Amino acid sequence: MRLALALVAGLLAGCSSMRSYDAELYRTLDQASAGNVDGAIRLLEANNRLAEKDLLYYLELGMLQRLAARYGESQKAWMSATARIQSSREAEVSNFLRDASSFVMGDRMRAYNGHDYERVMLLTFMALNHLAMGDFENARVAIKQTHELEAQIAELRGKLYAEVEDGARKRGARTSFKELNGYPIQTIDNPEVNALRNGYQSALSHYLAGFIYEALGEPSLAAPGYRLANELQPGRALLEDGLRGLDQRVAAPDDGMTDVLLIIGSGSAPALQSRQFMLPIVWQGRLLLIAHSFPVMQPASGMSWPSTLTVGGRTLPVERITSVDLMARRVLKDEMPSIMLRANVRTAAKAIAQYQAQRAAQREQTLAAALAAGVITVGSAVLESADDRTWRALPAEVSIARTRLPRGAHNITLQTSLGPRTVPVSVSGRYAVVDLRLLRNQIFVSAPRAGA
Questions:
Q1: Closest alpha carbon to 332 in 61, 44, 118
Q2: Where are the domains of the chain?
Q3: Which positions ≥6 away from 163 have C-beta within 8 Å?
Q4: Is residue 262 within 8 Å of 131, Cβ to Cβ?
Q5: Which pLDDT score is estimated for 450?
């Protein structure tokens, strides 16, 4: 009975934290896509009223501030996000099998530490903020941290997968999502997803590293960045051109032209949806219905990206080099064994709780005992919710183009689903990065203010 009463208390305490993150962020991004970034920020604040903000709040806030070209404020928000990630990283593996709330209540009750790709993309966008403020040196620091983070993630994933396998073996649990009846396997297990080396390395981050090191006159460091970008996205002519002629570009005298890297982010990262499966379990001769919830990645809706852009009187090819959409799906696929293991442990705990509650109700025949049994049976199904939290303000797809332009003002025209859209930019220095973001009906520009 104690376990049953403890679960009742947990169910009641957890009610306030059950919210649809996807629904909140859809409305927030809808405001931003209409050009009302301040309204989007106000809506984000209204949905996060607690004094202690979580990681996702700072991730989303930093991106919205970036869209409004408030780069200093964006960096401050993302520094807060970085601090939260660093404080949680060391404890991630050791806490995996000891996080009681996630085993009793579901993954939605766990502290959100960010998906692997989100952590790397955070540092990449912090580097882009520095570039938008004309600070190549600090962009170099941020992009170097992405390399270090990737190595840490690789080590951490290895430890976590080993612990999941050990935990599943000891419990006799099955951890293959392919055994879930009705689960849309093709959303996370398809040729495009499986072609990724992993769920955190992106050609964007490494190509940007190559460009930054090249701009700072460090070809020996630029070459590995360009090379790894080619390995992650092989057969892309534009990526191959980054490595070709690198030494000659760095050694060439200043001719009054600017080498411009154009980055085009399209759409927003895919949403997760919690879907529930009711599984019958026989416990002590009783048929119990135990609710399982698992995250399902939503299909991209009308996602497209430009194939060309026009600037300086020239039409340039645009190469898609990073799909956050695919990375998110790969990460979910890789995380499903641990999600499945936690679900298996919750099943056993809930079966015991329901059995104890039903026995107490029969034995004591009191209103309190009957109520406890009812809350355990119904409430656990209601609150068993998969984690739908992801960094939604990230672009779904990222493409690049590269050209040399005379220093000064230019117009860039993109072919979008709504027709051609033209935005003004200004470039200076020997190297510059222009970042364009297509968010539904809106184009946001992060233009350089200085070059290297």
A1: 118
A2: 2-194+257-446
A3: 93, 96, 97
A4: no
A5: 36
